[in-house]
Amino acid sequence: MKLGIGTALGWVAIAAGSLLTIAMLSRFERPPIDSVQAGFRGTGMVENVNPRLLAALQAANVIPASLPALPAAGPKAGQVYKNVQVLGGLSVGEFTRLMASITTWVAPTQGCAYCHNPANMADDSRYTKVVARRMIQMVQHVNADWTAHVKETGVTCYTCHRGQPVPSRIWFNDPGPPRAGGYTESSFGMTHASAAAGDSALPYDPFTPFLQNADAIRVQGTTALPAGNGMGIRDAEWTYSLMMYFSDSLGVNCTYCHNTRSFGDWSQSTPQRVTAWHGIRMVRDLNENYLMKLHDVFPPNRLGPTGDAPKLACATCHQGVYKPLFGVSMLQGFPELAHPLQPAAAK
Ligand code: HEC
Ligand code: HEC
Ligand code: HEC
Ligand code: HEC
Predict the structure, then answer these.
(1) How far apart are CA 302 and CA 299, in angstroms?
(2) Residues 226-274: pLDDT tens digits?
(3) What are phi and psi of 302, to 5 degrees?
(4) To test ligand 4's pocket by mutation, which of 283, 318, 322 has the most ligand atoms within 8 angstroms of CB?
(5) Whose Cα sits closest to atom 36 in ligand 1?
(6) Minimum-distance ligand to the CA of 142?
(7) 211 touches 311 (CB < 8 A)
């Protein structure tokens, strides 16, 4: 049989169409799906949970065993060691327990030498030690000053690191793929599938404007007629990209925070939206005052495509769960991470 080019193209189109269908279907989860009502009846405020995926998520979010607490009595680390700038107020026992815990949380396979020069523990020549010292201060700051978000649950190094030196869900400024000139030169930050925006074709870097800079996340008009609202469709697309990222980071629907009949209306939103509002401000603070300030400490291979420092966002702590580690607090066993410590008395 002789095939015309048209017929051949037809078959190619059918084959491509079938592959696309299969690819799309594999994005859907098979029933049954459990659902939990989370708001007024008839408003669609419901959370869907796939029990088969939940088991794996729970298994991945079990906290590691903590070492037993050690007495606060005895000489202080600040008096015994040479170069302790943040944890000097701890007893030597407490200090050693924290060092061992930090090692299992951040560098379990690499060990103490990931941060330390084994020949001289006081030496600050490894950048990882300098970063770690600042991270200890960051954790104390989050737990002391951002309780509007982290409540009493708080965070430890493990919340983000999960046994690896570089947390899995960090981000960099994304310049996008290289583009040809002319009409295609500007994509307005979108038009190709973006993992950051929940695999949608919405703008692929929702982080830089909203979680590094403080662009307003306000697009809806508050009046019936479009008066006084300077936000356009493009602003809405950036906002939606960020919101897709929120949902993805927490493993929830939009209705976890919003009543979708009016996304912007706080009086109809859930309490979780208020927690999220504080979370946005917390993330900006941590990026600006901790991660970005460490820019010159990080080696070039840790910087992003435009030379920017690594940054964190919702998923860095949450990792797909509405509360990191399903709300189990590791902080209770580590009171030294709950707030900045008093410096040790001089020798
Ligand atoms: C993730 C990085 C990291 C790891 C891993 C780590 N440490 Fe540390 N260590 C630090 C930081 C940061 C300081 C300084 C703390 C400060 O300034 O308050 C420090 C300080 C010390 C000091 C004080 C040294 C001096 O004389 O000033 C000792 C001792 C120490 N660590 C022991 C250990 C031991 C033992 C291990 C392995 C079980 C370990 N550390 C693992 C980051 C780390
Ligand atoms: C809120 C999330 C978060 C918490 C909590 C956190 N870190 Fe980090 N940490 C980061 C991010 C983001 C980076 C940058 C990743 C990189 O180095 O490329 C980082 C980097 C590091 C690095 C450098 C690793 C490397 O190889 O470049 C060390 C060491 C480290 N953290 C130690 C700690 C310690 C110790 C604690 C607890 C006191 C802690 N971190 C708590 C987010 C966090
Ligand atoms: C974890 C909570 C949370 C989730 C989930 C969430 N949002 Fe939001 N959303 C917020 C917060 C908080 C704001 C306001 C941010 C601010 O004011 O800084 C907001 C703002 C918005 C706005 C702008 C409202 C205005 O005043 O103009 C829209 C639109 C929106 N979200 C849509 C969505 C959509 C669509 C989804 C699902 C894809 C979603 N949100 C998921 C918390 C959430
Ligand atoms: C430093 C780690 C960290 C980061 C970063 C973080 N969160 Fe959280 N978040 C927590 C902790 C811890 C809790 C649990 C507080 C509690 O026990 O109620 C929480 C709770 C929440 C809740 C309340 C859940 C509920 O059911 O009550 C929402 C909503 C939330 N976070 C949204 C966000 C959003 C959105 C972002 C990014 C803008 C974000 N978080 C970034 C640590 C973090």
Answers:
(1) 6
(2) 788 888 888 999 999 999 999 999 999 999 999 998 999 999 999 999 9
(3) -95, -5
(4) 318
(5) 112
(6) 4
(7) yes
Burial (CB < 10 A; 0-12, 13-18, 19+), residue 24, is exposed
Query: What lines the ligand 2 site, CB under 6 Å?
Result: 102, 106, 115, 128, 131-132, 135-136, 139, 155, 157, 159-161, 165-167, 170, 291, 302, 310, 312, 316-317
Give the tokens for residue 327: 């709300």
Using CA positions, which residue lies closest to atom 39 of ligand 1?
A: 112
CA–CA distance, 314 with 281 (Å, rounded to integer)? 11
Q: Is 96 exposed, middle or buried (0-12, 13-18, 19+ CB in 10 A)?
A: middle
- Residue-averaged pLDDT of the chain: 90
pLDDT tens per residue across span 98-129: 999 999 999 999 999 999 999 999 999 999 99
Contact 51, 38 (CB under 8 A): no
Q: Which residues line ligand 4 (CB under 6 A)?
A: 142, 149-151, 153, 155, 159, 246, 250, 272, 275-276, 279-280, 283, 312-314, 316-318, 322-324, 327
Write out residues with Cβ below 6 Å of ligand 3. Answer: 217-220, 239-240, 243-244, 246-247, 250, 252, 254, 256-258, 263-264, 272-273, 276-277, 280
Which of 217-226, 235-244, 306-315 is least confident? 217-226
For tokens 């800079």, name the residue.
Answer: 213
- Give yes or no for residue 19 having a pLDDT over 80: no
Longest dimension (CA), the chain: 95
Q: Residue 116: which residues within 8 A CB-CB, separation 6 or more?
A: 123, 126, 129
Under the banding of pLDDT at 50, 70 and 90, the label for residue 176 is: confident
In angstroms, the CA 26 to CA 17 distance is: 14
Does the CA dihedral 229-230-231-232 come out positive or negative?
A: positive
